[in-house]
């Protein structure tokens, strides 16, 4: 299966499937998070917390492991058959390259590292934990994920996500929708404090 031969809907599915661990890592962190703040309550000269109580070890570790496990499940025969039956296309190559475990780790950790970097920036802007910062909140995790992939897995990233502009546009378009959608659900079922 090569992206340029797929219909737009199928490209959508494949790109989301590939990035799945990054999205899942972010959601699992909300579920496992809340314990052991990474900054241990410390502040910087501006008087604000380094990261704040919204960035914890339990979220970082739980989310990273959650994303990796999700990736390992997608990377089984069952996972490939599921995608093939959804798209009606046969896969001609492995989705996460020769070193899938490493790719899952970058996708998941990158996602939470991006989220953490955004919190660091928010605190420097005098924004409290949970305060809204629309574009940053929606894209932080996916940009850091892509950036780490570019540094550590460039050949793999180029073969799937930087293969023409379509995959990148799909990610830019779908990320805010997925992010907001999942957060609204999380808010309504009571696992998240804000719907953003
Ligand atoms: N979470 C966590 N550890 C992480 C990431 C997330 O514990 N590394 C949990 C926290 O309970 C957090 C929730 O997931 O409150 C939602 O994440 P997010 O919206 O990113 O955090 P906010 O509380 O909005 O804090 P910030 O303003 O720093 O983004
Ligand atoms: Mg938030």
Strand content: under 5%
Largest beta-sheet details: none
Mean pLDDT: 96
Give the cofactors and ligands: cytidine-5'-triphosphate, magnesium ion
Instruction: Kindly provide the radius of gyration, computed on alpha-carbon positions and rounded to a whole number of angstroms.
Output: 17 Å
Number of helices: 7
Structural class: mainly alpha
Instruction: Report the strand count.
Output: 0
**Low-pLDDT residue spans:** none
Proportion in helices: 55-70%
Distance between the termini: 35 Å
Order of SSEs, N→C?
HHHHHHH
Looking at the structure, what is the overall shape? elongated
What does this structure look like?
- This protein has 196 residues and is mainly alpha-helical.
- Helix content is 65%, strand content 0%.
- The protein has seven helices and no strands.
- It has helices at 8-32, 57-74, 77-87, 100-124, 134-152, 154-160, 166-188.
- The longest helix has 25 residues, at 8-32.
- It is elongated and about 55 Å long.
- The protein starts with 7 loop residues before the first helix and ends in an 8-residue tail after the last helix.
- 36% of the residues are buried.
- Cytidine-5'-triphosphate (CTP) is lined by residues 29-30, 33-34, 52, 54-56, 58-60, 112, 115-116, 119, 122, 129-131, 192-193.
């Amino acid at each position: 299966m090569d992206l340029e031969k797929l219909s737009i809907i199928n490209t959508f599915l494949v790109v989301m499937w590939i990035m799945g661990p990054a999205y899942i890592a972010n959601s699992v962190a909300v579920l496992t998070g809340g314990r052991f703040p990474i900054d241990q309550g410390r502040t910087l000269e501006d008087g604000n917390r380094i990261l704040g109580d919204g960035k914890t070890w339990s979220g970082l570790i739980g989310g990273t492991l959650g994303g990796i496990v999700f990736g390992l499940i997608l990377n089984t025969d069952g996972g490939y058959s599921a995608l093939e039956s959804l798209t009606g296309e046969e896969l001609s190559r492995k989705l996460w390259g020769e070193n899938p475990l490493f790719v899952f780790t970058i996708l998941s950790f990158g996602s939470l590292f991006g989220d953490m970097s955004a919190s660091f920036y928010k605190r420097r802007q005098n924004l409290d934990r949970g305060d809204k910062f629309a574009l940053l909140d929606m894209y932080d995790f996916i940009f850091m994920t892509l950036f780490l992939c570019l540094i550590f897995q460039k050949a793999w990233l180029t073969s799937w996500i930087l293969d023409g502009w379509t995959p990148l546009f799909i990610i830019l378009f779908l990320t805010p929708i997925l992010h907001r959608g999942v957060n609204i659900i999380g808010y309504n079922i009571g696992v998240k404090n804000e719907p953003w």
